[in-house]
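Final report, closing paragraph on structural work. Over the funding period we assembled a curated collection of sequence-structure pairs, and we close with a single example.
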Amino acid sequence: MLDILSQLTEQLGADTIVNNANIPNEQNQTVIKETSNAIFSSLQAIANKGDLSQIAGLLQGKELDKNDPTVKEITAQVTHSLTQKTGLSSTVASGAVTAIIPKLLNALIGKANDPKDNSINISDIVNTLTGNGSAEHAGIMEAISTYGVHFGLDQNADGKVDLDDAIELTKKGGIAGMFGKLFGK
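Its predicted structure, as stored:
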């Protein structure tokens, strides 16, 4: 996912980074790389908070803009990272970041939702952000998906337990509520 995010930053960064008179040309590649790294880190931090509703909100495919609360959170974190690691002023960093982040996130989600593009999908994004790519975790998630319907975990009655169901369950008591329901507590 980081590779795809880096490619998108490179493609979409022409106006906001490369052609930005306030960013010295010799720093363009550093700013592009740090922007994609910081966005990835910000997304991971949000996912690791355990509030899947923020990540799900991003993944719904709606057009994001700079006023979206999650975009604002990511923008603040990326701006801070750029000022710390590149020496750009907070005004310059904020201007570039505010302009590029909605474009990047919309492009990433667009790629993930495009059935013709198999370079990344929503599951890849969630697994990458939450670190759930391990074989052990995959086995647990497969069991929950397979048997969770029988334990009332299918919150939207679509016949499968997936991210949408997890979001609903976290709203009703967090991960502990989900596992409590699964194990009858």
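The radius of gyration is 18 Å. Confidence is low (pLDDT under 50) at residues 134-141, 147-151, 174-179, 181-185. We thank the funder for supporting this effort.
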